[in-house]
Design a protein that fits this description.
24 strands, eleven-stranded parallel sheet, mainly beta, 323 residues, 10% helix, 4 helices, single chain
């Protein structure tokens, strides 16, 4: 068995079913180096199983800044107790695989990564004065909505959810998060972006809504003066309202949609920097070949989609949602 540096730390823990005191300690020894880069960042606690909330009362986690729960099995009713055990030690928490239905964010947590952990919800207490969370990543999760009270995370820099089950997103949840640079809601089931009032994200530079079910997007209430990258690939988009407002836009990704041909011409006339590629002005062929559909457009100004766009932009007051 080869001994490696402390950044690769494993601990195999048996099921905890009673309140017997247990001081968890990390070991540097293991036989096989894990391939996933997430498992190279801290103290790995493997196969932790907690069936009862009282079992955590006397558990002491190691004093490591990064705790990685590898394939844990945690009962749904112990999220508060788990927070109590971890908040005095860990600044970063990574949950890799396993089953952790619920998690509670504690004020000192700076990074939360959920990877295939079957997590359905993350609790953010609106009564907490100051959260330090900077990075929130959830991949292949079981959420059906973004967590409530996101705007309590005033230090948040990056928010990413990939491959969950989200059907709608309210950008108002992020309003006023002045440190936020990136939002990614990719490979969801999002059919609408809800905006009921002006959303101010002064330092947001990247917004990704790829691989969703969006048919139209209205950006007129988005206050994102530093947005440089807007990625909306692989949706069902016919048009976007208000693109010309993003004066710093440097990367606009729109391929694999159903954009109206005359809308593309109209949009390119108003865009200041980044343009929609000319290759997307080729009419889509009447084929089901996905590769041939990536860079093309559908219909002209007589098409219902373009008429809908004109109707939506007749007034300065946009609708609350565009579906």
């Amino acid at each position: 068995m080869m001994k490696l540096s402390a950044i690769f730390i494993f601990l195999i823990v048996k099921t905890i079913t009673d309140s017997t005191a247990l001081n968890l300690a990390c070991s540097e020894d293991f036989e096989e180096r894990p391939e996933n880069r997430l498992l190279h960042e801290g103290c790995i606690i493997r196969d932790l199983s907690i069936a009862d909330s009282s079992a955590l009362e006397d558990v002491i986690f190691p004093s490591e800044s990064t705790i990685i729960l590898y394939k844990p099995e945690i009962a749904a009713n112990v999220s508060r107790e788990l927070q109590n055990r971890l908040e005095n030690t860990a600044k970063d928490l990574i949950v890799f695989g396993g089953h952790v239905p619920e998690l509670q964010i504690w004020p000192g947590l700076e990074k939360l990564v959920l990877f295939g952990s079957q997590t359905r919800g993350v609790a953010i207490d609106q009564n907490v004065d100051q959260y330090n969370l900077r990075v929130f990543n959830a991949w292949n999760c079981s959420f059906d909505a973004t967590p409530a009270n996101i705007n309590q995370l005033t230090e948040l820099i990056s928010f990413e959810m990939y491959g969950c089950n989200i059907e709608s997103v309210d950008l108002g949840q992020f309003d006023g998060l002045s440190q936020l640079i990136h939002i990614g809601l990719v490979r969801q089931k999002i059919a609408e972006v809800v905006v009921t009032k002006s959303v101010s994200l002064a330092n947001l530079t990247s917004l990704s809504l790829n691989d969703n079910n969006l048919r139209a997007v209205d950006t007129r209430l988005w206050r994102m003066p530093n947005l440089k990258r807007l990625s909306l690939t692989t949706n069902k988009l016919r048009f976007i309202i208000g693109l010309e407002r993003f004066e710093e836009l440097q990367m606009l990704e729109l391929y694999n949609n159903r954009l109206n041909c005359d809308w593309i011409k109209y949009a390119n006339e108003s865009l200041k920097k980044e343009r929609i590629p000319a290759e997307m002005l080729q009419p889509c062929p009447s084929t089901d070949n996905v590769e041939q559909q990536e860079f093309c457009c559908v219909g002209d100004r007589t098409d219902p989609a373009f008429q809908e766009y004109l109707l939506a932009t007749e007034t300065d007051a946009p609708p609350a949602t565009v579906q």
